[in-house]
């Protein structure tokens, strides 16, 4: 079995061209392929498959081996992967678990259209919203020193969120249109170097009461840019932009893995 390793601002994925539908979807196999010592290593595994009314379909699994909701950085990486496979020229449409996405690629830079966000709810100064995956957003000071793993794990496993889980984003405001975000990711159950749907959620929480439509988001693994059109407490025309690159490729004999 051929696999490709891609990363988008440090969020990394095992990518498989599964248009022939031969990949054995097995949670334990996916978990082992994502294992950083016993496997290839990755925050998740992504299958690229054929789609009726789009250029391709994205199927996303977290590194715990379970299929999950939309992955923004994974979406940017599958666009770069599909371009590498010559599936499209510079603009594509693909189907993911949260619906149809458009994307543009220029070199290693990918701009991905995210699902609309209908509502941001607030609970004692924090924010909860769904950008294709569920996110909790908390604004803090001195984010570099903040205990992201401990506090993120605590919120993700709290009574409110324990059953379905949630991704937990901690945000420091850098200037009038820039934020720094660190994320504890559901299904990875650890901090990742970047979370695309999390960066998007954090940016929307940041601009919800501002007259701003572009946000620079610094993450540990690089820089992202989010564009959004606000409409009261909802957002449309949301785009996530950043670099996505192929790191290496290889083959695995699944009969002896
Ligand atoms: N772990 C997330 C999905 C991947 C999100 C992240 N990798 C992104 O770039 O959006 C979840 O299960 O909700």
From TrEMBL:
It is found in: Cytoplasm. One of its GO terms (biological process) is lysine biosynthetic process via diaminopimelate. The keyword Ribonucleoprotein does not apply. It is an enzyme of class 5 (isomerase). The record marks 135, 185 as: Could be important to modulate the pK values of the two catalytic cysteine residues. One of its GO terms (molecular function) is diaminopimelate epimerase activity. Its EC number is 5.1.1.7. Substrate binds at residues 11, 62, 72-73, 167, 185-186, 196-197. Pathway: Amino-acid biosynthesis; L-lysine biosynthesis via DAP pathway; DL-2,6-diaminopimelate from LL-2,6-diaminopimelate: step 1/1. GO terms for cellular component: cytosol. Keywords: Amino-acid biosynthesis, Cytoplasm, Isomerase, Lysine biosynthesis. Its main location: cytoplasm. Pfam families: DAP_epimerase. InterPro entries: DAP_epimerase_AS, DAP_epimerase_DapF. It catalyses: (2S,6S)-2,6-diaminopimelate = meso-2,6-diaminopimelate. The active site is at 71, 71 (proton donor), 195 (proton acceptor). The keyword Iron does not apply. PANTHER family: DIAMINOPIMELATE EPIMERASE (PTHR31689:SF0), DIAMINOPIMELATE EPIMERASE, CHLOROPLASTIC (PTHR31689). Homodimer. HAMAP family: DAP_epimerase. Belongs to the diaminopimelate epimerase family. NCBIfam families: DapF. Catalyzes the stereoinversion of LL-2,6-diaminopimelate (L,L-DAP) to meso-diaminopimelate (meso-DAP), a precursor of L-lysine and an essential component of the bacterial peptidoglycan. This is Diaminopimelate epimerase. It comes from Cruoricaptor ignavus. The lineage of its organism: Bacteria, Pseudomonadati, Bacteroidota, Flavobacteriia, Flavobacteriales.
């Amino acid at each position: 079995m051929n696999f490709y390793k891609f990363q988008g601002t440090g969020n990394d994925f095992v990518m498989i061209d599964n248009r022939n539908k031969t990949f054995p979807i097995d949670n334990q196999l996916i978990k082992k392929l994502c294992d950083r010592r016993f496997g290839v290593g990755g925050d998740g595994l992504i299958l690229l498959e054929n789609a009726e009314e789009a250029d391709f379909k994205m199927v996303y699994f977290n590194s715990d081996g379970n299929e999950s909701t939309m992955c923004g950085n994974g979406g940017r990486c599958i666009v770069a992967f599909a371009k590498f496979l010559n599936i499209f020229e510079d603009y594509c449409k693909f189907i993911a678990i949260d619906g149809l996405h458009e994307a543009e690629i220029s070199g290693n830079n990918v701009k991905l259209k995210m699902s609309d966000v209908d509502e941001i709810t607030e609970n004692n100064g924090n924010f909860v919203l769904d950008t294709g995956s569920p996110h909790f957003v908390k604004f803090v000071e001195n984010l570099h020193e903040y205990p992201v793993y401990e506090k993120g794990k605590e919120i993700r496993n709290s009574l409110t969120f324990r059953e379905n889980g949630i991704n937990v984003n901690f945000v420091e405001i850098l200037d009038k249109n820039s934020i720094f975000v660190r994320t504890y990711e559901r299904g990875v159950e650890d901090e990742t170097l970047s979370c695309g749907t999390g960066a998007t959620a954090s940016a929307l929480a940041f601009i919800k009461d501002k007259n701003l439509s572009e946000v620079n988001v610094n993450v540990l693994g690089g820089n992202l840019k989010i564009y959004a059109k606000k409409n009261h407490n909802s957002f449309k025309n949301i785009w996530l932009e950043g670099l996505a690159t192929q790191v290496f490729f290889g083959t695995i004999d699944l009969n002896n893995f």
